[in-house]
Amino acid sequence: MASAYAHMVLDYYIQRLRRNRERREKQLRRLKTRRDVEAFQEKVRRAVRASFGPLPKRTPLMPKVTGRIERPGFVIEKLVFNSRPGCLVTANLYLPRGVQERAPAVLVPCGHAEEGKGYSLYQELCQRLVSCGFVVLIYDPFDQGERHQYVMVKSDLVGGCTHAHNMEGKQLDLLGEFFGSWRAWDGIRALDYLQSRPEVDPHRIGVTGNSGGGTMTEWLFALDERLAFAAPGCFVSTYLANVENELPQDSEQYPPGILARGLEMVDFLALRAPKPLLLLGQRYDYFDLRGLEKAHHDLLRIYRLLDAAERLEIFVGPRGHGMHRENQEAVAKFFSKWAGVDYQEADVEPLDPKLLWATDSGEVVREGGIPIYEFIARQARRLSKLRRPKDRELLRSRLFRLLGIPEDRPLPHYRVLRPIKIGGSNYGRYAVETEEGIEAILFRRLKHPEQAYLLEADPRCLVAVPHVSSEKEIVEGAPVGERGFLVDPRGMGESLPGGGERELFDPYGLDYMFHGLGLMLSEDYLGRRVFDVLQVIDLLRSAGAAMVDLYGRGLGSLVALFAALLHPSVQRLTLKNCPSSFEEWCLSPIVSWPSSCFPRGILRVADIPEMVSSMGGRVQITDPWGPMMG
Predict the structure, then answer these.
(1) Taking residues 242-251, what's their average pLDDT?
(2) What is the Cα–Cα distance from 356 to 81, expressed in whole angstroms?
(3) Residues 6+ apart with CB under 8 A from 408
(4) Which of 173, 248, 168, 250 is nearest to 599 (CA)?
(5) What's the rounded Cα separation, in Å, for the pair 116 and 475?
(6) What distance in Å separates the CA atoms of residue 486 and residue 425, rounded to the nearest whole number?
């Protein structure tokens, strides 16, 4: 059915981020002195460290130069190194001819181009920089260039680099890890290699990248104080602008807890003020130009308080998204100025990407590199061995914290909506206001139409959480009877976002985006759905139910499982098409369950079999689904 609730969850997050913006604006207005700025930067530093977590220990890079390409004015070395043991990174090092030592350098993380370092615009950028006398290191990200992780696994779910990133990101969520940290670690190790070269002045190293490379420019600039100047391109905006414009991002672009700590995207850059910084954009970029201008405005306030306004610049090219010629030249001029070298015009000529391969096959996994899904599987097995049995009360306490659900909840208000007819029967509908801006929709089959206007429950009632929507579940024969209710928690059923059901399963859809926003707000999105069901159970208890049985199917089975563990009134739990375990999802390279089913850090607390076991014999599971939802 058509619904007025399709924008509910999106509008909820927009309002949350607008309130965040207001609080942050007050904080920025309180910055009056250099000391105020330094205190603000320390706050950002702590937040960034907490978000990215402890980084791995440095291990031998084991770099290997596998070939050289001679070009007029410069040489390209083909390079392979280990960012962690067995994790092979392919790169190209551009060296100016005649350079001996102490030249400035630039690290270039790639944006989301399938060719990675071989993408023509990124080659042009490197050639312009090397022509100005910079040593330039550009490296392939996961799933781009020569680092496709799924070359041995064929699936449309990882057919492009962004979908592959989101596959890896959701599996790492289960381990309590952040894919952005994995991406940043590759860049930090690339910087280690760059500093090891005798040609490079370690005090004059900059970083620049476009789109996803702009993201990594921000993250690396914040994480590694060795970088002296930066130029992020076609990424810097505001989180609010991205949400208002319905613009999901890759999993590495959702730093956990950042919004909960009151930060904005640009604060990663403010952390390094007054180092020279150039903000790059495009007039017709899908990253909102207004957000870029707002970021520049906020940074300018900070740079002025540090008496360094001349070190901050902004350049907006005339085109759409991309590191096009005008932006390449702007970077080369800005870096030349602050590195103390003369800017040189350059004639650029991109090569066939295959000529830049550092491996024979063009794929590190075929050359013996360990794919990231194998690292994920190893860590899942380790966590399984480390977990200890927990009694139900301890498990409940840990799950409340993990999911970000308050244990004390005010009784929700509800509204009586118009009854509807489904499959020949009349159903009452109730909008349960679980929190400001969110309504879970409750359905009950009516014996008489008048029953719709009073919400009442039998002493023992059933609550069903659907796979996709209550209406569809009713049509397909949900076993609720006349004493039962069905509930659509947020983002399901009547509040399916955007284009409807497909948004639940789109690896880059709105449901995925809400999961990412939940991570940044330290509020698990699956946990918010569980919260909705807990509120509904509380309401039904006030309406006469003493005991509640829960039924969940598919996506709803996970919501029902957590709700049954967390609410003491639940007596029996029936799960249909429930996953067998979260660990199984980490042992499989490909998982089709959507990101909103992946609670961050759950495998550090418990797995599904342990949760089911804690409920004794009160759980019935039928027709479980595997990693591919079948």
Answers:
(1) 96
(2) 15
(3) none
(4) 173
(5) 48
(6) 14
Tell me the two tokens of residue 612: 């089911």
Over the chain, what is the mean pLDDT? 96
C-beta separation of 562 from 403 below 8 A:
yes
Single-letter code of the amino acid located at 595: S
Across residues 342-347, what is the average pLDDT? 95
Q: Which two tokens stand for residue 175?
A: 């381990």
Average pLDDT over residues 598-613: 97
Q: Are 179 and 519 in contact (CB under 8 A)?
A: no
What φ, ψ does residue 274 adopt, rounded to 5°? -100, 30
Dump pLDDT digits (tens) for 289-316: 999 999 999 999 999 999 999 999 999 9
Check: CB of residue 493 under 8 Å from CB of residue 441: yes
Summarised one tens digit per residue, pLDDT across range 425-476 is 999 999 999 999 999 999 999 988 888 899 999 999 999 999 999 999 999 8
User: What distance in Å separates the CA atoms of residue 18 and residue 391, rounded to the nearest whole number?
Assistant: 41
Alpha-carbon 17 to chain mean position: 16
What are the Cα distances from residue 492, in Å, to 59, 417, 425, 516?
45, 17, 22, 17
Q: How confident is the model at residue 3 (pLDDT cuts 50, 70, 90)?
A: low
The 3 state secondary structure assigned to 173-229 is HHHCCCHHHHHHHHHHHHHHHHHHCCCEEEEEEEEEEECHHHHHHHHHHHHCCCCCE
Residue with tokens 């991309």: 322
Q: Token pair for residue 490?
A: 């947020």
Asked if 332 and 128 touch (Cβ cutoff 8 Å), the reply is: yes
Instruction: For CA atoms 419, 420, 421, 425, give the dihedral sign.
Output: negative
Residue type, 450: E
Please tell me which residue, 185 or 389, carries the higher pLDDT value. 185
Q: Give dist(CA 620, CA 624) in Å, integer.
A: 11
Per the CB < 8 A criterion, the answer to whether 119 and 353 are in contact is yes
Residue owning tokens 């609010």: 240
